[in-house]
Amino acid sequence: MKKSIFAVLFCLCVTGVFAQKKGDTMYVNVNSAALKSSTGFFASTTGTVKYGETVRVLAVNNKKWIQVQTTGNVSGWIAYSSLTTKRLSAQGNTTNASANEIALAGKGFSQETETEYKKNSKTLNYTAVDAMEQITVSDSDLLSFIEEGHLVKGE
Questions:
Q1: d(CA 97, CA 53)
Q2: Phi and psi at residue 97, to the nearest 5°
Q3: Contact 70/53 with Cβ under 8 angstroms?
Q4: Following CA atoms 99, 101, 103, 104 in sequence, which dihedral angle do they give, to the nearest 10 degrees?
Q5: 88: DSSP letter
Q6: Is the pLDDT reported for residue 153 higher than 70?
Q7: Could you give the CA distance from residue 126 to residue 14 in angstroms, rounded to a whole number?
Q8: Alpha-carbon distance 123 to 115, whole Å?
Q9: Is 111 helix (H, G, I), strand (E, B) or coil?
Q10: For an engineered disulfide with 26, which of 11, 34, 83, 96 has Cβ 3.0 to 4.6 Å away?
Q11: Cβ distance 36 to 78 under 8 Å?
């Protein structure tokens, strides 16, 4: 009996998470994300949103992608995981968190955690990791890599 009650509650919670519908308000929870013309990774970019920006839901596709419209009337598709229903602390295009703090939070760290870890691990060298984090690859280069390597593109 307890298992069935737990299962029902779990299902209600999960479906509640994905219950966004047209007209709902959501907030960008990543440092920056591209709005796409369709639901594919390699779709053309229609705009960009930043952490804390407010968007209005236009459509939901398979709980992976949501079509949104910004306050500046730019619309496009964005990964569901880049949005939250929780209002974030942001004013205009500025936030009370730095880009570094946002990046650390995405890794499950805080500045204090990383500082403490570095302090207790004197032999670790983060230079290579920091350099790798600065590398960016364009969508066209990534697509070329996938095609030349005969890899599967996914969606």
A1: 14
A2: -125, 140
A3: yes
A4: 160
A5: P
A6: no
A7: 38
A8: 14
A9: helix
A10: 83
A11: yes
